[in-house]
Amino acid sequence: MTSIDLPRGHAVRLGLERLSRIIGIDPRLLGMLLVLVVIWLALNIATGGTFLSARNLFNLSLQVAVVGVMATGMVLVIVSRNIDLSIGSVLGFVGVFGALMQTEWLGLGHGYTWWVTSLLMLLLGTVIGAGQGAIVAYGGVPSFIVTLGGLLFFRNAAFQINLGATVAPLDETFQLLGGGLNGTIGAFWSWICGGLAIVAIAVSSILIRRKRQRFGFAVRPLPMEIVGIVLWSALVLVFVAVMNAYPQPKTNEPMGIAIPVLILIGVTLIMTIVARRTGFGRYVYAIGGNPESAELAGISVKFTIVKVFALMGLLAGIASIIITARLNAGASVTGTLTELNVIAAAVIGGTSLAGGIGTIYGAVLGAVFMQSLENGMVLLGVPTPLQKMVIAVVLVAAVWIDRVYQRSRT
Amino acid sequence: MSATQAQTPLVELRRISKTFGGVHALEDVDVDIYPGEVVALLGHNGAGKSTLIKVLSGVHPPDHGEIRVFGNPVRIESTREAKALGIETIYQNLALAENLDAVANLFLGRERYTRFGFLDEETMEHETRRMLDRMKLRLPSLRTEVSRLSGGQRQAIAIGRAVYFDAKILIMDEPTAALGPEETAKVGELVRELKAEGIGIFLISHDIHDVFDLADRITVLSHGRVVGTVRTSDVSKDDVLSMIILGRMPTR
C-alpha cells in the first residue's frame, strides 16, 4: 500500500520520496499512512462523523490489538520463507486452556490467578510454536503442511479438552488484560505514557544523531530533525487525547488507553528492535534473502527457524490472553480464521511471500488498515458476506499496487 | 617464490579422500600453499575442484586424510571453524543475501554488538567504509540492498567480507567469471596486494590467461585425483591444457 497507480505514478513516487526525506521516514511507511488517512476520511464522511469519533477510535484500537500483535510475528515467519496457518487455532486452544486454568485448576479471585494463568498461556503458545518450528526445521516438512496440521489439531484440541463447552466467567483481574470498561489506564496514566513516549522519541533521535556525527556520517539538517521529533510527538499527543476523550459510560471518567493497546504498542516496539537491532533478526532476514549464504556465513539456519516459530507462538499466546480476557470466556471457536487476517495484515503491510522483505510497522499498519475497513463497514451496516468480499478485493489490490510500485523503482 | 619453500606451508592437505554415495569425489589428494603464494586449481567440471575447496572451507569434512594449518593438524567440521582458522572463501555465486545492504552482508555471521547486546550498526558501517576505502572501491550507498548493485560492486563486497577478518588463506572460486575486463583487472590487482601481505590464495578459474597471470603454481585435478602440481614458470599454457585434457603430466 504505498502508491496509487496513476498514469503519472512515477511523479507520485518521486513526490513521496522527497516528502519522506524531509520528515525522515521510509517512503513506504509514508505512503501507507497517506492511504490510511484517505480511507479514514472517506469512512468518516460515509458514516456521518461516527468513524472518527473518540468512541469508535477507542473500539478500533481494541480491535487492532489481537491481529496486530500476531502480525508482528507473522512478518518474521514470512520473511524466513515460511508460513504459520495454525495461529488462529493455537489462539483458541491456549484460550480454553487459560480459562480452564482459572476456573478449574487455580480458582478465581486469588491474587496470583491472573499472572500464573498468563505466564502458562505464554509458555504453552511458545512450546507449541517451537514444536512446529522444530518439525519444519529439523524434520524438513514444509511449514505450510506442519501448520496446516497445527490448524486442524489445535482447533479440535480446543474442543476436545472441554468437549466444546465454553468456560466462563473468568478472573476479574485477568479480564482487565482484554480492555473493556475497566481495562484501561485512565487519563492520568495515559498522559504519563504519552509524555514518556515523547521523551523517548526525543532522546533516541538525539542519541542516534550524536553517534552518527561521532562517526562522521551524514545527518539530516537540525531543523528537519526537530520537525521530525515534533511531528511524532504531536501524533502521540493526538492519540492520547483521543483515547481520553471517550468517557466511560458508567462513571463518565475518561477511559484512556486500553491495556491491550498498550500491549500492542509494547510488542511493536520490541519486535521492531528484534527485527532491526538483534543478531537473531538480522539472521531471519538473511535466511529469507538467501538461505545458502546464511548457512555458509555460519548461521544456524535450522535453530533460527525454530526460534521464529517459537516467537510466533509466544505472540499467539499474548493475543490469546487479550481475546480470552476481553470475551471473558474460553471458547473452542475463538480465533477461527484469524490466521488469514494476520497473514493479510502482514502482506498488505508490504511483507513479501518470497521471503526476505517485510517490516514490523508495515504489518501493524496493515492490521490497522484491515480493521478500519471492517469497522467502517460494520458502522455502515454492510452485511458480513459483503464485508469479507471487500476485504478480499482490497488484499489482492494492495499487493498488486505494491508490485507496480516496486517495479517502478528499478 | 622459491625462498618461501623453506617455510612451513600455511595449509597442507595430505591424502584427502571424500566419497559421495560410493563415488570418489576426491582420492588421495595432496595440495599445499605457502604464505604469499597463489595456487591455481584446474580441471574439468567434476574433476573435484569444488569438493576440494568445500573440504577446506568446512562445508564437507573429508572422509580420510589430514589437514595441517601452520603445521598443526586440524579438523574443520564447519564453515565457522574454517573461518576461525583464517580460511575464508569467496564462492562463485558470491553467496550474498540480496535483500540486505553492504554492511549487513559484510558482517553476516560476525556482527558487532553494543555493550547492551544490540547490533552496532554505526560501528559496522564505519568499518565497512574504511575497508572499501582501503580496497579503493566506491559504492553509491552502503545502505542500499545488494541486489541493486553491479556485478563488480557485489564482487567487491564478497572479497571485502573474506579479507576483512584477518584471512590467512583465501579461496577464490571463479572470482572474475561475472566481471567485465576493467573489473577483472581490479581483482587481479587486489590478488597481488593480498599476496604481498603474505596471504595464501587458492584460485579456481576457467580463464587460463588469468591463471598464468596470477598463479605461482598450478595443481591440476582429474577424476578426483591430482594429475600433478607444476610451477607456472616451468610450463606453457599448452602443457597445462594437455594435463587437464589428457589427465597426465606432459612428457618432454
Largest chain interface and its two residue counts? A-B, 28 and 29 residues
- What is the class of the largest domain in chain B in the CATH system? Alpha Beta
Question: What's the architecture of the largest domain in chain B in CATH terms?
Answer: 3-Layer(aba) Sandwich
Main sheet characteristics of chain A: none
Q: Could you please say which CATH topology of the largest domain in chain B applies here?
A: Rossmann fold
How far the N terminus sits from the C terminus of chain A, by CA atoms, comes to 18 Å
Mind summarizing the main beta sheet of chain B? 6 strands, mixed
What share of residues of chain B is helical? 25-40%
Spatial order of the strands forming the largest sheet of chain B:
6-7-8-3-9-10
Which secondary structure elements does this structure contain, and how are they paired or packed?
The complex is a heterodimer of chains A (410) and B (252).
Chain A: H1 9-23, H2 27-46, H3 54-79, H4 87-106, H5 113-139, H6 143-160, H7 172-176, H8 186-214, H9 222-244, H10 259-277, H11 279-289, H12 291-296, H13 301-327, H14 338-348, H15 360-379, H16 384-409
Chain B: E1 11-20, E2 23-33, E3 38-42, H1 49-56, E4 64-69, E5 72-74, H2 79-84, E6 87-90, H3 102-106, H4 121-134, H5 151-164, E7 169-173, H6 181-196, E8 200-204, H7 208-214, E9 217-222, E10 225-231, H8 237-246
Parallel strand pairs in B: 3-8, 3-9, 6-7, 7-8
Antiparallel strand pairs in B: 1-2, 1-4, 4-5, 9-10
